[in-house]
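Continuing the series of single-chain predictions for the mutant panel. This is the parent chain; the variants come on the following pages.
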Amino acid sequence: MVKKQETSDNGNIISSMVNDMLEVVNPRLKHNETVGQIEQVFRNYGFYTTREYPIYKIKDGSGRVGRIDLVARKGKFRVAIEYDHHKLIKWKSFQKIVQIKPEIAIAVSGEGRL
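Parent structure:
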């Protein structure tokens, strides 16, 4: 019974974080400013954050090192966030996020769409 309550609480916290994150998304801000606003939301919830988290296995054939806009970590729990300033989220954002196998992967468009 306790585990169910803990899961429910974690779900509420995650829901609150996502709502707070979407409130700060503003397409009029520059990319780095928006990522900084999102980063602050996660820090407010006690997460450690890393911007431009390096990944080394880009599957687009270019062989280049890629970067995820933001990775937030709390203990062993990781959230990967990609922010695309455009109306639509690019496929490569999803390709980057899944490579680090986070517990939660979030891709947000400039219009605040998940």
